[in-house]
Design goal:
Blueprint lengths: L1 E6 L2 E10 L2 E6 L2 E5 L1 H12 L10 E3 L4 E6 L6 E2 L4 E7 L2 E6 L4 E6 L6 E2 L4 E5 L1
Antiparallel strand pairs: 1-2, 2-3, 3-4, 5-12, 6-8, 6-11, 7-10, 8-9, 10-12
Length: 125
């Protein structure tokens, strides 16, 4: 299984391979081997990962709040890390940026709309 992890803005390539009576995990150029006992713990952790469709480009609300401004419109082409919305939460303005590059297919929110954490705000093509 191959994964890309982004931790504190840095991206890591991770590969998990079964090997003999254990599991080998490669993170970048470093390799780690876990024996039979640790393999069972890794399998349990692996099953608990949420299933996500990474092929779908959606911008989601990172926190609950109210949409205070929409900075883009449907049909716009946006770049990765571009500001697309302002979200007011706990008396603070939060800039929502895109994790993707692409054309805006649909904006699912309106100004002054209340959103919950995890709500889809924008869908990209």
């Amino acid at each position: 299984m191959k994964l890309k992890l982004k931790i504190k803005g840095k991206e890591y390539q991770v590969e998990i391979l079964e090997e003999g009576n254990g599991v080998k995990i490669k993170i970048g150029n470093k390799e780690f081997f876990f024996g039979e006992k640790e393999k069972e713990e890794i399998a349990v952790a692996q099953v608990s990962f949420p299933k996500r469709n990474f092929s779908k480009k959606e911008i989601k609300a990172p926190i609950a709040g109210i949409i205070s401004e929409i900075l883009v419109k449907e049909g716009d082409f946006i770049k990765r890390e571009q500001k697309v919305l302002l979200l007011s939460s706990m008396k603070m303005e939060n800039e929502i940026v895109s994790d993707f590059e692409g054309r805006i297919k649909e904006i699912l929110v309106k100004k002054n709309q209340e959103v919950r954490e995890g709500d889809t705000l924008i869908i990209l093509e």
